[in-house]
Amino acid sequence: AQSVSQHNHHVILSEAASLELGCNYSYGGTVNLFWYVQYPGQHLQLLLKYFSGDPLVKGIKGFEAEFIKSKFSFNLRKPSVQWSDTAEYFCASRNNAGNMLTFGGGTRLMVKP
Amino acid sequence: NAGVTQTPKFQVLKTGQSMTLQCAQDMNHNSMYWYRQDPGMGLRLIYYSASEGTTDKGEVPNGYNVSRLNKREFSLRLESAAPSQTSVYFCASAGQRNNEQFFGPGTRLTVL
């Protein structure tokens, strides 16, 4: 069975700090990877996704993620966070033959103004 | 387009009561999903429906049943609610096999 690990459960940053959230997945075959964001009181929204091609993926709101196959990682980055980035972030994987997403436990990000 | 809609938004049940959570999507998606979200555990798949007329168990199906009523609607039923089912429930839908899943606003369920 697939699994996704997000090692940082809570992250607190000041505005303008750089962000990197870790994500590791377990599936060894072809995999699709996603980052979702959940703002307080809202539903999940897709930030970015990786299916194939360039391992550096750019998403909305200045976020990017890098797929490193050798490390089974898909870390999320943003060079300068804003207070409005306060949210919970979920990494998810899906094997290429499957129809289901496997989610990590989530990382709560708080950005102090 | 409303996207994915869920009713109700909030619900409080007593142990042993039953209820049905409703989900509908207007994006003509084939696949629909029910997840539960618990603190520190991310989202866990309860059931999914790859197409109209089919349903399959996910990671945590015990205590739940589902019905894919038609292409638009996918309901989740708790026959005899238990406190362990206190959670936030999200419905999602997806189009082609590799397309992203779109989520509904969630239902916050408390079982006393």
- Rounded average pLDDT of chain B: 92
Largest sheet: number of strands, sense, barrel closure of chain B: 7 strands, mixed
Q: What portion of residues of chain B is helical?
A: under 10%
| Oligomeric state, counting identical vs distinct chains | heterodimer
Return the structural class of chain A. mainly beta
Helix fraction of chain A? under 10%
**Taking Cα atoms only, what radius of gyration of chain B do you get, to the nearest Å?**
13 Å
- Beta-strand percent range of chain A: over 45%
Order of secondary-structure elements of chain A: EEEEEEEEEEEE
Please tally the helical runs of chain B, counting DSSP H or I stretches of 4 or more residues: 0
- Spatial separation of the terminal alpha carbons of chain B: 36 Å
Radius of gyration of chain A: 13 Å
Number of strands of chain A: 12
SS class of chain B: mainly beta
- Main pleated-sheet profile of chain A: 6 strands, mixed
Shape of chain A: globular
Q: What is the ordering of alpha helices and beta strands of chain B? A: EEEEEEEEEEE
List low-confidence stretches of chain A: none
Largest interface, C-beta closer than 8 angstroms, per-chain residues? A-B, 23 and 23 residues
Polypeptide structure, described:
The complex is a heterodimer of chains A (113) and B (112). By secondary structure, chain A is mainly beta. Chain A has no helices and twelve strands. Chain B is globular. The model of chain B has no long low-confidence stretch (mean pLDDT 92). The A-B interface holds A 4, 6, 9, 32, 34, 36, 42-46, 49, 51, 90, 92, 96, 99-101, 103-106 and B 4, 31, 33, 35, 40-45, 48, 50, 58, 90, 92, 97-98, 100-101, 103-106.
